[in-house]
Amino acid sequence: MADQERVAHLGFIQDVITRMAREANTLKAWLVPVATAAYGFALTNHSWPVAALGVAATLVMGWQSAEYLRQERAYRSLYSAAAQPDSAVMSFDMDARPYLRGWLSRKSVLWSWSVAGFFGSFIAAGIAVTFAVVLKWAQ
Q1: pTM of the full structure
Q2: I need a surface site. Which of 28, 88, 123, 125 has the fewest CB within 10 A?
Q3: Domain that holds residue 22
């Protein structure tokens, strides 16, 4: 692969990596007001279904964020392979599926600090709000 082609190819891969990271951060930015509104409404109106809806939204957004992180890591592996001087990666190959095996399992990505740490705290808060509302409602 010629040097100009390699630089262009690496630029394309880096664009995908940047897009995946940006989308994962956008999900986190949207989660804060959505979860806060759901949990706040649930507490003030004693509505456990709204709290449960907030937990469900957090789970969905967490799963999506984990998928973005998984894809981002696969493209980072593709980038590393394509950047090698004697790379077997074809010119302008954007298929990162071969790099989704092994350490990029969904389980490992879900338990990463950027997914489990962030979304887990919102899930724990939502479960606490749900129980608080249910206990208040039962009285």
Answers
A1: 0.87
A2: 88
A3: 3-138
